[in-house]
Design brief:
With 296 residues, the protein is α/β, with parallel strands linked by helices. It folds into 3 domains: 75 residues, Orthogonal Bundle (Arc Repressor Mutant, subunit A), CATH 1.10.10; 104 residues, D-Maltodextrin-Binding Protein, domain 2 (3-Layer(aba) Sandwich), CATH 3.40.190.10; 93 residues, Periplasmic binding protein-like II (D-Maltodextrin-Binding Protein, domain 2, 3-Layer(aba) Sandwich), CATH 3.40.190. It is built from 10 helices and 14 strands. Helix 1 crosses helix 2, helix 1 crosses helix 4 and helix 2 packs across helix 3. The protein is elongated and about 70 Å long. It starts with a helix and ends in a 10-residue tail after the last helix. Belongs to the LysR transcriptional regulatory family. It holds the Pfam family LysR_substrate.
Length: 296
């Protein structure tokens, strides 16, 4: 299994052999023996390309999970189990990672010098097991998947705001129902569609329209600063613009439901020291009064 996953991760027999410190012939032979033992072909190989077969994809996902569990089990019963070390593979939303996660990494490195970090940023929900992540940061109302362990890291407040120039030209809405006559810039990945949901009382939704939808919050923030319309975005994105006056909060008496920043990781009996130390570090750095809300 280790040879097979190494070949898939490396993308070639040569690179896998280098990582395993074996010869290419030995790696190829071990993979052939594995396929013979299983009675299936795991990889389609030509002189130039290599790709997983359908059964190979299923087997790879299981191998990644089993090998990770084996490593954690061995660490849990070894004297090194309390020492954070190795490469920590983390997935996080793009804008949140750039603004609030990346600046913390040097401090974490100082505290845990034996831990390396491989950070992947995107705004889609990844499959931690299939894609080989140790940990993901997610912004949601609930932790999403019951198969994952979730730890609350910080509250995330969402506010409606716009540029002073836009409000001067189009007026300031005094109540949610007035949003229908405004340009409301939408976020593509929201589960709310074209409605903005207000917490109340009583809770209610308002249908909104706008000429722009985007799958990245920073794009919407910059468009709003330029006077394109109203946005409903988290304070970790708009905090700086609110503090320096480039954006102005509206409908402050009509709160939107809060979200939460979660750390999620696969449900396993033994939690590795590198994951535990990173989650503890983030929880302490952000907490119930996160720095992005300072002054708001």
């Amino acid at each position: 299994m280790q040879v097979f996953t190494a070949v898939v991760d490396a993308g070639s027999f040569v690179r896998a052999a280098e990582r395993l410190e074996q010869s290419t012939t030995a790696v190829s032979r071990q993979l052939a023996e594995l396929e013979a033992h299983l009675g299936v072909r795991l990889l389609q190989r030509t002189t130039r390309t290599m790709s997983l077969t359908e059964v190979g994809r299923v087997y790879y996902a299981q191998c990644v999970s089993l090998l990770a569990e084996l490593a954690e089990t061995e660490a849990a019963v070894s004297s090194a189990s309390q020492i954070a070390s190795g490469v920590l593979r983390v997935n996080a939303p793009v804008s949140f990672a750039i603004r609030h996660l990346a600046p913390l990494l040097p401090r974490f490195r100082t505290l845990q010098p034996q831990v390396g970090i491989e950070l992947a940023v995107n705004d889609r929900v990844v499959d931690l097991v299939d894609e080989g992540y140790d940990l993901a940061l997610r912004i949601s109302r609930q932790p999403l998947a019951s198969t994952l362990i979730a730890r609350r890291l910080a509250p995330v407040r969402v506010v409606v705001c716009a540029a002073p120039d836009y409000l001067a030209r189009h007026g300031t809405p005094a109540a949610p129902h007035e949003l229908g006559r405004h340009q409301c810039l939408g976020y593509s990945y929201t589960d709310r569609g074209t409605s903005w949901e207000f917490a109340g009382p009583p809770p209610h939704s308002v249908e909104v329209n706008g000429f722009l939808r985007a799958n990245n919050g920073d794009v919407l923030v910059e468009a709003a600063i330029a006077g394109a319309g109203l946005i409903a975005q988290p304070t970790f994105l708009v905090g700086d613009a609110l503090r320096d006056g480039r954006l102005v909060r509206v409908l402050a008496d009509h709160a939107l439901p809060d979200y939460t920043a979660w750390a999620v990781y696969p449900s396993r009996r033994f939690l590795s020291a590198k994951v535990r130390s990173f989650v503890d570090f983030l929880a302490a750095a952000w907490g119930d009064a996160p720095p992005w809300d300072a002054g708001l």
